[in-house]
Structure formats: structure tokens, C-alpha cells
Description:
binds nicotinamide-adenine-dinucleotide; three-stranded antiparallel beta sheet; elongated; alpha/beta; 9 helices; Rossmann fold
Amino acid sequence: MSNTVSQIADWLCEADQVVAFTGAGISTESGIPDFRSPNGVWATNRQIDFQEFLSSADGRYEYWRQKSLAHRAFHDAQPNIGHRVLVRWEQQGKLRGVITQNIDGLHQLAGNSVVHELHGTARDIACLSCSYRTPADPLVEQFLKTDLVPDCPECGRLLKHATVSFGQSLPEEAFEASVDLARTSDLFFVLGSSLVVYPAAGIPQVAKQSGARLVIINRDETPLDGIADAVIRSSIGETLAAIDRAMSAT
Ligand code: NAD
């Protein structure tokens, strides 16, 4: 692994349009479970897609139950070394932006200023019918206390976390900005994503096809390992810290 780390550090020294594409794996070291690992969210929870949320009161209750419990897990979570290395690279003028599938807000909390959230944020709750939007904490606490799904205080319709459920479209602006970043990137990191959820997982392919070097750091194999210039199957925090040390030493 150390040869690969120094190779990536050399690429990082040469690059000035670095982009990081992150998934749930970058936040497991902050104590937030990912989806598909053996102890991930789907080992214990049934997936509520958007159609079920819209059409079934039971589905909405189950959605609010799962989201409210998950909210507590990341309410106290703090950015880890992986998040912090990305902030350092931005401060050094290397990193142009972070494209994230995560909904935990930890990149912003760490201090990255350009973060495109492809799947929205669980830190807010929004009405599906009007423009009402509010921080999640009070409504989550209210649900956990009353066991009742809240309605929009402005129009009485459905309230949902400001995240993208399966079956719901991606926010257009974040998606287009992410594709633009990928097209102009010269070094593109995938950090902690199984790369199976589309259209997000197509973005690293855009970067590679546009001429960027593609680096994948993920504990498990991904479908894009074959087109990557380097693959490291290890901890994201430890690996990014090692790359950062190697870059500082050159
Ligand atoms: P995923 O669960 O499908 O894949 C995560 C990958 O990260 C796995 O392949 C796993 O091997 C790897 N991984 C986990 N911890 C790691 C570590 N410490 N070091 C290296 N690799 C590690 O997650 P995904 O690809 O992001 O799936 C997409 C969906 O998951 C998104 O829709 C996202 O909104 C949602 N999600 C987000 C969060 C969050 O915001 N933190 C948490 C769970 C799920």
C-alpha cells in the first residue's frame, strides 16, 4: 500500500483541480453507520421509498421513526480525520469541491466551503407542497416524544427530511454543479461509496472520461475499480492521513 500512497501523493502535488466524491463510508469513522455494510442501516431497517411515503400513513410513520432514531446518531457526530484532510487540501488550494451522497452535513461542519449534496440533508425538514423549511432537531424531538408524524404548520401537508428518497429526483442544481466539477477535475477521489446508486455513481465515470486520474479508497470492491488509476481497500481516515503526510514530505 505504501507505494500506492506515495504515487497518489505525487499525483496530488501535480494536481490543482482535485475533487472528492464521498459516500457513507467516510462517516463511519464518526460513528454513523453506512447502508450496505453488515452493521449498516439496512441490516435493521426496511427501506421506505418515496411512493410509499406519499401513499401510506404507515409508511410515513415508519419513515419518521427510522429518520428520528438515525438523527440522534448523527446529531452528536463530529467530523473525523478523513473530513479534516479534505479541509486542509481545500485550504491549500488543491481541492475544488466535495460532491457528497451523505446527508449528515459533516463536510460543512469540518469546514469545507464547496459541498454539493446530491441526496440533500437530514439536518433540515421541508414541506413537500409549500416552501416551508426548518431545522430538523425540534420536529424530531417532538416526534420522539409524541409518536405522531407532524404536518406542515403553514399548509397542513406532508413534512419530510430534506433528503432524497429512492424514487425521488436529485436536486438539479447540485447534480449539474457536480457534473461540472467532475468534467474539469484532474484528480478525482472516491471515498467510501459502494458506487451502486445511480445517477450519483455515474459522476466518477464522467471525471475519468474527461481525463482525470481516478482514485478509489473503499474497504470493499466497487464496480468502478477496473477503470481506476489506483484502488486502496482500507480505512479512509488512515489512508487520507497517510497520503497527506506523504504529500507534505515531498
Ligand atoms: P454504502 O453503504 O452503499 O457504501 C459505503 C461503502 O463504504 C461500503 O462499500 C464500505 O465498504 C465502505 N466503507 C465503510 N466504512 C469505511 C471506512 N471507514 N473506510 C473505507 N471504506 C469504508 O454507501 P453509499 O455508497 O454512500 O450509498 C449511498 C447512500 O447512502 C446515499 O444515498 C446516502 O444518502 C446514504 N447514506 C448516507 C449516510 C450519511 O450521511 N452518513 C449514512 C448512510 C447512508
